Amino acid sequence: MTTERATRRCASIPKPPAPTGKAGESDLDRLLFHCSEVVVCYDRELRYTFINDAGAAFLGSKVEDVIGRTNREIIGRGADAIEPHLRCVLEERDKLFVVHEIQLPGETRLFDTVYSPVLNTAGEVECVAGICRDVTDKRTRIRHPKEPAGEQVEPLEPADEKRRLEKEAHRKTAEALRRSEGRYRELADSITDLFFAMDQHLDVTYWNRASEEMTGTWGDRAVGRPVFEVLPGTGGTPLEEMFRRVQETRRPETLVQAGAFDGKMRSFEFHAYPSSSGGVSVFGRDISARIREEEEREQIQAELQASSRIQAVATLAGGMAHRFNNALSAVMGNLDLLGMDLIDLDAGVRESFGRYIDGMKESIEHMGDLTRQLLAYAQGGRYSPTVIPMDTFVRYTLPLLAHHIDPSISLEADLPGDLWSVEADTAQIQMLLSAVVQNAAEAIEAEGTIQISARNVPVADHDTERPARLEPGSYVRLTVKDDGAGMDEETLERIFDPFFTTKLQGRGLGMAAVFGIVRNHGGEITAWSVPGEGTRISIWLPAREIVGQEATPRREPVRAEGGTVLVVEDEEAVLEVFRIVLERMGYQVLIAPTGRQAVETVETSAERIDLVILDILLPDMDGRSVYPELIRARPDLKVIVTSGYSVEGPAREILDAGAQAFLPKPFSIQELRETITRVLGDAPSLARPP
Q1: Is the pTM of this model over 0.85?
Q2: Domain at 385-544, CATH homologous superfamily
């Protein structure tokens, strides 16, 4: 059974140049023939044209018995793990790394192998060179070939004939050695990894072409010099320690170390092997790309974990805001009803009670701002997006912000008159700007300046300074810069984390809310800061064209005569406010605390139903599931969607499906009346279809 895994480097191997005399015959011969790794070469018919001692030993044969034969002839079915890769290299002219199990006589071994195509002068693949490392038990075990048991005694021949035969044999041997030398050099220079050899003094004795290219040092300048001069910066490092250990222990080792041999920092995986001459042979593989991929993978994993953590907190924040808004709706509605009931009281009493009511309403509005911050952080969306001219908006907002910062802090603006407009929710962008300016003011301990500027910024694909998540397009960049204390790197990295603050306990939600608002508007936010040099917050918001719209005439609230409203709401306090207010408006009120009851009421009630006020979050069904059932029963039914969440999300889906309006919680009685009037207007009530 054969198991294997292979990876391919998509680059053809260039034709190596002719030998340049980088090493003598004896050095190269010892390097390849006595290397502890298996070194082989195959022709296009997959027959061995070269194999070193280690390779022949693993096959259980002698070198001369292997040359000219195929693996299938030597190891039988074990060749199935080798031949497909050789054919692949021949056909695709690519280098191939493979780890596979090979069935050898009497045992199965695991080999880490690199196969390389060797090209001739015509650019054709002439043969395939291979270097194999036995990694069966994570350490190389080499069996050297046994000495021949003895030589066969040939019959004696006449002296002259014998001398002639010996001379011919020497000539053939010398010719074979010359051909082998050329093949060895071609094989070594075809390797695309660093490949060099050292003697017992760690002076370089061989330096292949890849070593020249990766270090910028030619072979004739490397050979004969100490390796630590040829590879500057390696002396006294773990790499030198490894070389000397390999010399002492005669055991191969592997080490990953960075180096800038050609002026460019790279990471190499060095494999060092002892040579028979007492020196060390080394392969060095550039693994910079692999390390970068691992680092990027770790960074992505960290970002995913951070995103998951933020999403969990965002979900919690959104749920809290929803429940809080429901409670505020009940309080606001009851205060409005109380104010209405004070009409018949004495003017002085009514004024006194009115002040109390106004104070409570003001507090409710502040609490509503907090819930909007929670929803903004939870990326809950925009309540009422409109096209905003940015220069006008910022100029109008700055005086409001100036009242909330210390008078010793100067607020400066740089706003050109040709700023583009953005589509945004005015209240949320005001909250965003207020939070950023407030943070800047808190960073200034005494006197200081906060500068607010805005610019039109076209962003293209090739822009290197644009934030990574920002899509190409037109943006208005809003920048708030202060000359305060600044932040260190650790604090800067957490500036948008929920509830993180370096100030008083309980604060710090503002910048998290800013982050959510910007992202929800399709923009991006970045922060720069240096201790002692202040902080700069940059916000990109997508630009929008102002499209002319006809003004909608304001209609006075209409009192329906006998109209019927179905309120689908599970919060009892909010349901009671709806009932009282709608009854005072002249409507008959039907109530349904669950989605199923709402559907049954619409399907079975004989009464006409003019309007449904539908909450999104119900105990048994989601509002998105309730709406289609209501419309199926009465296709012309008008629906107002209400929720403590924002309009983006489920509410938007229902509106896109055909609902007429959205009423965010908390709401006042006046807002409820205006929404109902906008939906029903002067239209007649709708009767239930027969």
Answers
A1: no
A2: Histidine kinase-like ATPase, C-terminal domain (3.30.565.10)
